[in-house]
Amino acid sequence: MNWLTNFVRPKIRALVAKPETPDNLWHKCPNCEAMIFHRDLEANLNVCQHCGHHMRVAPDKRLPMLFDEGEYKTIELPKVTVDPLKFRDSKRYTDRLREAQSKSGRNDAVVVAHGEMGGMNVVVAAFDFGFMGGSMGMAVGDALLAAARLAVLQQAPLIVIPASGGARMQEGILSLMQMPRTTIAVDMVKEAGLPYIVVLTDPTTGGVTASFAMLGDIHVAEKGALIGFAGAKVIEGTIRETLPEGFQRAEYLMDHGMVDIVVHRKDLRGTLIRVLDLLRRPMPAAEVVDLHEDEEPSKEPVASKEPVTSKARGNGESADLRAAD
């Protein structure tokens, strides 16, 4: 046993070595490139405090922002056939799925939760862009159908929060078939007379935009969210024109009638509660007082219902007002 190697050297290294700093203490804003301390970023709901850029949020952080007291329950989603087409590019599809599942801790790109929001029961289906770009495959279609069935069973509004690049290419035509399946899920909710609200986040593109994401009764979008079908470069190359500034962003879409409300993330929960309250509780804001027949009518003078005529003479005007008898 070498005493210098086994005992002296480790002690010297422990004294002079720099302490290891976790690599997740600081985050760089993708918009203004400012460095933000992780606690400040979490306190500001993952919104850059310098430029207001809304960064992407995983469902496990987004859902507590919406539900009362941050409490909710998730449901177990149906299991689907894995890699039905035996797809392979640079990697096997099964390997990509396995990596995404181990990284995110969930089976696929959607989490379905239910709980109370402003004292009202709601069902929320939230996408995780970190899971293969939030792409829509068979598992996502089954998840939205399960969310719709749960909303109908609980007689609760359905809120969907997409963050997706579109259909999942590794599932081919099976992924495209999820567009009509998710449309059927939306119809189930609407036929039950329940509100269907879509919260558009960055990004919402491709087949997701072309199906359930644009079928909401109310469309709410986070500030600066990218919303569209094809990419801006593809559109410019097709029409051979320069697109206007801010094209496919939430504010541009609201100005052109495709989005109803654009909100800051800190105001999202309050906005959803007000919208749900208007849709689910269409009652007067104050108590209605009945006027009984035995009460005497008001003795205040009543304004005349006869028209008021005016005549212009010379440089001035004179009005002939006729009072009621």
Give your account of this protein's structure.
The chain is α/β, with parallel strands linked by helices and 325 residues long. The protein has two domains: 24-55, no CATH class; 57-280, 2-enoyl-CoA Hydratase, Chain A, domain 1 (Alpha-Beta Complex), CATH 3.90.226. 33% of the residues lie in helices and 16% in strands. The protein is built from eleven helices and eleven strands. The protein has helices spanning 3-16, 38-43, 59-66, 93-104, 138-154, 172-176, 178-191, 206-209, 232-239, 250-255, 268-280; strands spanning 26-28, 35-37, 73-74, 110-117, 120-127, 158-161, 196-200, 218-222, 261-263, 309-313, 316-320. It has a seven-stranded mixed beta sheet with strand order 3-4-5-6-7-8-9, sandwiched between helices. Strand 10 and strand 11 form a beta hairpin. The longest helix has 17 residues, at 138-154. The chain is globular. It starts with a helix and ends in a 5-residue tail after the last strand.
Number of strands: 11
- Oligomer category: single chain
What is the CATH architecture term of the largest domain? Alpha-Beta Complex
Which H/E pattern describes the elements? HEEHHEHEEHEHHEHEHHEHEE
| CATH homologous superfamily assignment of the largest domain | 2-enoyl-CoA Hydratase, Chain A, domain 1
Strand arrangement, largest sheet? 3-4-5-6-7-8-9
The global form is globular
Averaged pLDDT: 87
Strand content: 15-25%
Low-confidence stretches: 307-325
Structural class: alpha/beta
Q: What is the alpha-carbon Rg in Å?
A: 29 Å
Summarize the amount of helix as a percent range. 25-40%
Largest sheet features: 7 strands, mixed
For the record, give the distance between the C-alpha atoms at the N and C termini, rounded to a whole number: 121 Å
Name of the CATH class of the largest domain: Alpha Beta
How many structurally independent domains?
A: 2
Number of helices: 11
CATH topology descriptor of the largest domain:
2-enoyl-CoA Hydratase, Chain A, domain 1
